[in-house]
Amino acid sequence: MIVFVTIIVILLLTLLFTYNGLIRKRNAVKQSYSAIDVYLKQRFDLIPNLIEVVKAYAKYEKEMFESITKLRTEYEQTKDLSKATELNSKINSVLLIGENYPELKASENFLNLQKNLTKMEDQLQAARRLYNSDVTIFNTALQVFPTNIIASMFGFHEEKLFEIEPAQAENIKVNI
Amino acid sequence: MKNFNEIYEKVYRESINNHVEESRQQYIVEKHKHILITIIILGALTALTILAELYEFIFIVIFLTVIVSFATFSSKSKHYSTDYKQKIIAPLVKYYDEHLNFDPLRKIDRSLYNMAEFEHYDNFYANDYIYGHIDGLIPMKMGDVRTEVETRDSDGNTSRYTVFQGLFSAIKIPRNLQNKIKICTDKGKLGKVFDKKNYVQMDSQEFEKYFDIFATDKVLAMRILTSDIMNFMIQFKKDNKVKFEMTIKNDFVYLRIYSKDMFEANFSKEAMDFDTLYTYYRYLDFVCVLNKMIWNVLKDKEI
Known about the structure:
The complex is a heterodimer of chains A (176) and B (303).
Chain A: H1 2-45, H2 47-57, H3 62-78, H4 81-97, H5 102-106, H6 108-143, H7 147-153
Helix pairs in contact in A: 1-6, 2-3, 3-4
Chain B: H1 4-18, H2 20-51, H3 58-96, E1 100-103, H4 110-115, E2 123-134, E3 138-152, E4 158-185, H5 188-193, E5 199-200, H6 205-210, E6 211-215, H7 218-224, H8 227-240, E7 244-257, H9 274-300
Antiparallel strand pairs in B: 1-2, 2-3, 3-4, 4-6, 4-7, 5-6
């Protein structure tokens, strides 16, 4: 009888500690995701200003501006990280347009925006590293024994890593 | 900055002109002579004391003779030690980076060490001060430091033990950070429990194996610790198996390495002993390169 009770107690304690550990790891993922969301929001909030400044010099980039505005709306509605990745790379492309328009490149407003966006890009990359690190720990926990059994019992699911392209160094082709 | 072989050759040439190795050998010969003379004097005085039947003074005579002998000879060892530092270590530092200076008689400020917020200590000792600008650009202060803690037992006896002995450096960075970042040697699971809130899980498993990062701004810590910097730290740790810690706070980066007493003359080894000087070079190079990497990251970033 004592043996049976001891086994039950050990099993319950294992269940309790594993479950709490998984909750903690999932919360860490959520917390680091919220940091990404803040930096993405800060970066995307500069889109109207960026478009306004670039428009004045690069009138023929209308299509690009429209697709950026559309993507931003889609991201805000869905919070889909793949949309954020796409939008982020579009912003980087807009920043590179400056290389083809000397007047734009020399504009003080554009330079300020470029500086702010570069800073945010850097913060975003750091937040992404933090997030991916937490996601890797969480996903590994879901795959190893016996955590995988408890995770499937309570419906824990693997989280996706966030891949985002860093700003391109090379120039891009623009329609002039 | 030059490679070690180049520096060694130059210091070697200078050491020949300055007769450093000769003075070491002379010191050893004198040491042997001194020991022999001390034994003769000790024997003679002991014999005289016995002959005069002053047995109660025998221990006093032995004690005084040893003390006088030690005092007269220690000044000679100090002389070689100073010679070694000025004629070997100072050129080594200078040839490594012409903008750095070495002064064995000066010491790094205690207040600067305190600003790094390492553990509590009671006594602070320092020497072998290196100062100047890395590459003529980055202001750096560095030196040998030893800190001690005093404990008192129930009988009122005081005992001291060393808490840190090694190199300590501080560089001024081109940013004033509002947050503190601490890089420590891996503290294990238990060590992290006390500061779980500020613990930063880095994205390099190998780095995590050796170090723990605590930061009030985790994103900033990630921005500063690029993969290049992390790999450089891992490599030094692996190659030298030595503990080191770092604090980045306000406009300073503080680094301390548990290297034990550095830049000291070793009488049993040749003045230009390759391995000894290479060790000094490696530590100096690590401090300068790591600080330079962090300085460059901070310089290029908008914080």
